[in-house]
Specification:
single chain, about 230 residues, Jelly Rolls, 2 helices, binds calcium ion
Length: about 230
């Protein structure tokens, strides 16, 4: 074998060795689980939204726009005495065209009464003869309507079971107000949350004793008003 041929063979062998070592190194790196990139923990958008403080809706401020949101929640204050409950016959949420956009929309609730016949859907079924009844003694009662998308809201009307029946010392139509004007901070209220975490509106508390509560967001000095229809 000539000298030149030996040199060529040596060069080829060296090149082949280099290529093989590179391939082996790449294979080793990509198959090592320890070297795989670690994904960032996924943040919980629900928890993030829940940390945002609600904004009191004060229509005494000139130029206040009606609230704009998707989730309408009717709540009783946490820690309220068990004898006060939420018992809406119907919760109506009207858009700026006067359409009840809550009708037959999906609802979720907390503090549901154990008795049958009071499903949460009763609060938005359009029937004043059906009722949702929260649970006596629950720490926090609420029912939330999903409007399906952000909607500018003009008015909310809540009707409740009136009845002169007194249970645990409280008449039927005093239950959602926490007993009336003397209830301190234990009334019920509405929050409206948009799909953006920082768009949360909160009404003042219902304190009056009534069978119908109306909040008209288009009025300059809006507040809960009452209409006794029974
Ligand atoms: Ca109903």
């Amino acid at each position: 074998m000539k000298k030149n041929q030996m040199i060529i063979i040596l060069v080829v062998v060296v090149v082949v060795c280099c290529v093989l070592s590179t391939v082996i190194a790449m294979t080793t790196t990509t198959s090592d689980p320890a070297s795989a990139p670690v994904s960032d923990p996924v943040s919980d958008p629900v928890s993030e939204a829940d940390t945002v403080s609600a904004v009191e809706f004060d229509e005494s401020i000139p130029g206040r726009e009606p609230p704009f949101g998707r989730y309408v929640r009717f709540s009783f204050h946490e820690g309220a005495p068990g004898k006060y409950i939420l018992a809406p016959k119907e919760i109506k949420v009207f858009d700026m065209q006067g359409v009840n956009v809550a009708l037959n929309k999906p609802v979720t609730a907390h503090g549901h009464h154990s008795l049958e016949g009071y499903p949460k859907e009763n609060a938005v079924d359009g029937d004043e003869n059906t009722i949702w009844h929260s649970e006596h003694g629950s720490d926090t009662d609420w029912i939330e309507i999903d409007l399906g998308k952000d909607i500018k809201i003009s008015k909310i009307i809540i009707t409740q079971g009136t009845g002169t029946t007194v249970y645990n010392g409280v008449a039927g139509w005093a239950r959602m107000s926490g007993g009336g004007p003397d209830s301190g901070d234990k009334g019920s209220y509405i929050t409206i949350k948009g799909t953006e975490p920082d768009s949360i509106w909160k009404t003042e508390d219902i304190k009056a004793v009534s069978s119908v509560y109306v909040y008209d967001f288009t009025k300059e000095t809006g507040k809960w008003e009452t209409e006794d229809i029974n």
